[in-house]
Design brief:
The protein has 62 residues and is α+β, with helices and mostly antiparallel strands. The chain is 52% helix and 16% strand. It is built from three helices and three strands; from the N terminus they run βααββα. A three-stranded antiparallel beta sheet has the order 1-3-2. Strand 2 and strand 3 form a beta hairpin. Helix 1 packs across helix 2.
Length: 62
């Protein structure tokens, strides 16, 4: 059984999904609250990392 690789999102795509600014996205990456990788110098965030972040925030709010 193979699992599909997560979709890699750009910083602007994550900004749109989280409804936050560029600085906030990079702050979340810097503080390791949002997982990211670099692909040839470009920052990419797996879509499952965004879902995990949102789920964690919902869990903290409950």
């Amino acid at each position: 059984m193979t699992t599909a690789a997560p979709e890699l999102l750009t910083v602007p795509e994550v900004m749109a999904r989280l409804k936050v600014g560029r600085t906030k996205v990079y702050d979340l990456i810097r503080t390791h609250r949002l997982v990211s990788i670099k692909v040839d110098g470009c920052r990419r965030i797996p879509d499952n990392a965004v879902r995990d972040f949102i789920a964690g925030q919902i869990g903290e709010a409950a």
